[in-house]
């Protein structure tokens, strides 16, 4: 609770501002209290001094008249002492008159009369020729005045004023100030929390709106509902939404154009390739027919021309059937199959050629392959295309590697050969339709193109890497959980 409160802006501001106010209020209260205390102390000293000095005159006169025999003391000094003790405005705890040696002549407590005081405070009072204020303890003040005329001195008048009332007043003041400070801090804290609550609530509702806004769905233009800084934020957010929407439209348009361009290029390549692959053998066939029509062909020549016509028509048929293979069933049904079995079936189809060219097959196929949802026939076609390319690249033998890696949700089939490899400058073209290096009548150049289309229709990818003179590796990645991408 404490941590979550401190994580919020509202909590942080409330806490820090409250602490700041508390520190300021404490400083002000301290200054106020010590100022008040000083004033009260000064008032006590002023009143006490005035009192002692006025009584000192009467006491001095009494002592002087007594000395010159005008009056007999006869208890006058005790009267002054009891008068002093009657003063209720000052909290006087003792009053006394000492002679010059410190002997008590008169005292508010009769039992003290006759005692001789020799303590440090008394010594100070006896030697001072001025009114003296001393603080023997924190509980009372000792104020003394000399009983003297010019250089003639009879003794000292001393009173003790209790500071207990002052202490009570000061502690009352402390309580009052503390109460004010706590009250103010609570009030300010509540006000800050409330104000920040208003701000953060507005921010929270804007943030909720941001979270719930779906940038893909149709965003109708909105205008800010507030005029303040949060309104500015709202406006920026709505502007940003509009920009996202515009960008999204622009992106979709560019993507559509790109797709269209790609399709046009693909169709262009396909058509050009088809025209070439069909026109060439057709020209040959037409040429033979022309010679047949002329009728001047020997039997041998006729046999040769028939063979050529058969070859040409065969090539046209192969091209068309390859294209048909792809076009016939692009979204063919898929069912969970064991990919290892498809590989074995493809290898057995090519067994004769593998043995003929002394090719060694190395399999790395895990026994516990998870079933994968593909169209078995189409995948078989892909594998035959790739394996055939590898065999054709290893006419003098080599190693054909087949590995399946099915771990952590990935399914990768790697087919490598140690054949002649592909030169760098044509590596980019091998997936193009009708691209072949196998010479007239030998390859259609559709093998990798068709394979790529089939793999992509299965939601996978196919890539080829090769080093001239060292070999080629084809990698197929398929999703284990297949989803329609067409
Ligand atoms: N394993 C490989 N080793 C060397 N070159 C390769 C290999 N695989 C593909 N190629 C190159 O890529 C070209 C295109 O291959 P693709 O399978 O598409 O057509 P093709 O094999 O020429 O014709 P078809 O597959 O119709 O018989 C090949 O002509 C060849 O030059
Ligand atoms: Mg091929």
CATH-derived architecture of the largest domain: 2-Layer Sandwich
Low confidence ranges: 482-486
- H/I helix tally: 11
- Biggest pleated sheet: 5 strands, antiparallel
What's the alpha carbon Rg, rounded to whole Å? 58 Å
Strand count: 12
Instruction: Identify every distinct bound molecule in the structure, by name, code or SMILES.
Output: adenosine-5'-triphosphate, magnesium ion
In short:
With 486 residues, this protein is an alpha+beta fold.
Structure description:
- With 486 residues, the protein is α+β, with helices and mostly antiparallel strands.
- The protein folds into 3 domains: 2-170, PAS domain (Beta-Lactamase, 2-Layer Sandwich), CATH 3.30.450; 213-328, no CATH class; 332-479, Heat Shock Protein 90.
- Helix content is 57%, strand content 17%.
- It has 11 helices and 12 strands.
- The protein has helices at 2-7, 9-67, 76-86, 120-127, 164-212, 229-294, 299-328, 339-349, 351-356, 376-393, 447-457; strands at residues 92-99, 104-107, 132-137, 140-149, 152-162, 335-337, 359-364, 372-374, 398-407, 410-417, 461-467, 471-479.
- The strands form 3 sheets. It has a 5-stranded antiparallel sheet with strand order 2-1-5-4-3, with helices on both faces.
- A hairpin with a 3-residue loop joins strand 11 (461-467) and strand 12.
- The model is unreliable at 482-486 (pLDDT under 50).
- Residues 385, 388-389, 443, 447 line the site of magnesium ion.
